[in-house]
Amino acid sequence: MATGKGEQPSAASDQLQPLRDLYGCGPVEITGTRDALYERHLTFDHVVDVNRATDRQQFESAARSIRDVLSQRWLRTEQTYAAVNPKRVYYLSMEFLLGRSFANNVMNALLHPAVIDMARQKGLDVMALTEMEPDAGLGNGGLGRLAACFIESMATLQIPGMGYGLRYEYGIFRQSLQDGWQVEQPDNWLRRPDPWEVARIDEAVEVRLNCSFELQAGALKPVFGRPSILLGIPFDRPVIGYGGKTINTLRLWAAGTPDYFNFQRFSRGDFVGAFAESLGAESLTRVLYPDDSTSMGQGLRFLQEYFLVACALSDLIRRFRSGNSDWNVLPEKVAIQLNDTHPALAVPELMRILVDDAGLGWDRAWDLTQRTLAYTNHTLLPEALEKWPLAWFEAVVPRHLDIILEINRRLLGVVRSRWPVNDGRAERISLVEEGEHRKIRMANLAVVGSHSTNGVAAIHSRLLRSTTLRDLAELYPDRFNNKTNGVTPRRWLLTCNPGLARVISEAIGAGWVTDLRQLGRLKPLAGDPSFLDAVFKAKREAKVRFANWLKSTTGEHVDPDTMLDCQIKRIHEYKRQLLNALHIVVLYNRLRDSRNMEFPPRTFIFAGKAAPAYTLAKLIIKFINNLAGTVNADPAVGGRLKVLFLPDYRVSLAEYLIPASDVSEQISTAGYEASGTSNMKFMMNGALTVGTRDGATIEMAEEAGEENFFLFGLSAGEVADSRGWYDPRWHYAHEPETKRALDLIASDYFSRNEPGAFRPICDVLLKRDFYMHLADLKSYGETHEKVGRLYADQKGWAAKAAINIASSGNFSSDRTINEYAGQIWRVTPCPVP
Description:
This protein is an alpha/beta fold. The chain has 34 helices and 21 strands. It folds into 3 domains: 1-84 and 103-131, no CATH class; 89-100 and 135-485, 3-Layer(aba) Sandwich (Rossmann fold); 494-811, Rossmann fold. Helix 2 (36-46) crosses helix 3, helix 14 crosses helix 15 (398-418) and helix 21 packs antiparallel against helix 22 (529-554).
């Protein structure tokens, strides 16, 4: 297709195959009648001749045409909910990692025949259009992608639900690399209009604070003692259930002020000050996860969380009151799910609404609050359980502090009456952490103020009850439960891996798209040579597609005939990218020693972002990149070992990489990963897992059989039991390959122009090694030797890959949402006529 002026050329043709497979179309001659919707949007939205439109203008017009087709169904869904008045689910999350929407919306709405017809008439390449859409900058990692999968499953299952989040103008950040270091840049994903969103200015809500904010010297500064009002401006996006029967809404809030402009200050010549307050307010939703290494960054995060809660509850209570006059039916009509502790301020906010606004008594309001709210915990790391300074509540939301302290007074009375002996239990359960600077424990608040607390994998839920929240679990044993996470198969198999999806549908029919358990019918075919050949061919096609995409977008070369071994996730010590890198150093040493050793050529791929203030995580990225530079340039290992770090990890990158991957690295220290969802995506796309017995990997191995997984390392119990005596220096002294790898790093072999750059990594590993890298390194290496031997047997590898695909049916987000709906929310489907 012709590239319009003012835009970069569209991606190379060979990278555009996935949606050609999906839609059965590509660039063709213009024939027939031009599509009226598409042409209308080009003409009236862009005022451009259809033959001179840029790629971006074509994308926006095509997307708006699709939204036009969906709009009546979207309206009908809301009208049905208003008429039927069912119980509705409101999912509150600080992140919704949506990725791109074009292909997913077309697929779920079953509009691909219409898109094919439009593309043929207009000479459009559908895949090229999708490449013009940026990933929505609304999330960072697994938490946000889970939220996106969940709201899609709710719509597919026809559950009346709504997502609430924030409309981050610049996302978290766009990651680039400079001399191997992570560099954070603004992710201006809203630089061009988003064709999927609808601004609802008339439904803006007021959020009252006990302070105001101004931009002073480029920083957002609180002005205490001067109350202010923020405006929460809603932007709606359609959430399309598969088949297009139900279209729910994701409502994102942007911050503003009632008065955008101080005319008096402007008239006095204070041109900057005239806009200071409005700019300060709007800065609240500029960025996801502001740098929390400073108190200013932490304070902004606290404000973001309250802003989300205040906007969401104001909106959902308005919806509730439009069809219900009796406050007593609130828990029968409303279910509010708190996705981690970020929205935990919903507890005092709902109490404030019920007590102050509705005039209910405390006991009645508390009963309604607990029965309405539910909380999902996503971490076992104590440092990740949010605690906010009590002084911030006092300065910003003093009424909420009053409510929290009253909840705590009554809570501690119950605890002391049940356990009269002072064993420290009351202090641990208290919502207030005492000390020089008193803090509010948000996880404790979420547990106490809700009727359900769930973990996200069996081991995580067990450890949550026995360690992290043990005292609260003993106080409220009936509130704790497990809901193992899942992922939507529509995006993570049907759309992103059309070749494999076609093989599966040809074998068992297409029912698996909405009932992933049907993949179990593939198990007998794991011994069928023709089926295994088809699976192998689909994997090969996905690898070639990824290699072509990578070459056209980054210039990097990947040999699709090598084993693609991938670790793609947030960079964190407990996720142990460093263990993977250490093992690569071990392999590198072996290959330099013996060029004739049997070694299936492999490419190790890393991707993920480090928090801007996480110094060691950023150093790990630097080390991986320096390791790659050394290994990839060494002729002694050329063609047999390659290392890549792909910058700016995002959903659209994962949609290419996951279908192409042979090996999935799930190597967190046992007992630290809550669940993991990338492991599920890899499994259903036919990758084999190298992993610890941690998170949902345990349940995945149970489904497929441990003989079809590569498990290694210490168990969670062994990690806990070794805390008192573990000494990483023992491994350095007694394991020659471990010593040699660390010595090579310490010798500046990978940092010849930066002496001492990686000394902190060696110090961490040898002096404390809290996450047990050296304890598991030998076992990890031995497991990878098994991986290499199996990969040499392509038939054996394909059989295990087929078993993994067939065993992934339990890890659909549809199954998870059905469990939430039946066991926590008590909500039933509401079909839209």
